[in-house]
Amino acid sequence: MTTFSKSPFPGMDPYLEGDLWQEFHDTLANQIRGQLMPLLPLHYVALLEKRYVIEDPGIDLVVPGHRILYPDVHVINTVRETALAEADVQVAPPVRLVSHIPESLPHLSIEIRDIANRRLVTVIEILSPADKCGQGLAQYLERRYDLLETRTHLLELDLLRGGERIPLSGGELPPAAYYIYLSRFTQRPYTDVWPIQLRDRLPAVPVPLLPPDEDVTLDLQAAVDACFMLVGYQRLLDYTQAPPPPPLAPEDAAWAKQVGESANQQVKK
Coil, strand or helix: which one is 136? Predict the structure, then answer.
């Protein structure tokens, strides 16, 4: 089995926040599940849960459920038949634009369940772009609020610089590129937050279980590194260009460019 190297970035790789995000999202969910399973007591299991979101960047259409939905199209002919009969010469269309075609994308999360009672204990969400803007944000927050009303722990991984952040009150979030949120059902309404700067290593965070069982630890950086070593994303990412939006601050952009140039040299060897 071929093993690739780790990400050239010490923490989250900002170049993944583009076309490869969906693939990385699913790979990361599997790596997190694989890391947690040996750590969980035998009466727990970590399962992958799939929900479908219909994404269309053009019209921001997000619909819950398991069906692919297509907008209805209704064509009305307002030209008289006599006029059609007289039109014997085809005219080239003066404009060509792009039709928005909604796409149904699976979003994986990790559910930790108590085997004996089939109880949902902890949900680990990896936020995607659709979860952070427009109707998708509204849908995700509705799902989030439903979980917060239950005796379920919620761990949210926001590894995207763009989009809206999780709404919290009682103070302002420190500026950061990424955030991790943990809401224990035993401590609500309080939420623990880990702000993560672009140049920081991703932290190891607690994954709570049912009392009196102790937390297990999720080493998020190890999970991301495992994704790179499995797939070799550094071969697929164009480090010669600026990272996907939003734009980095000038100092961070210069640093990311330097890291990317070093990564390109390593790939060529």
Answer: helix
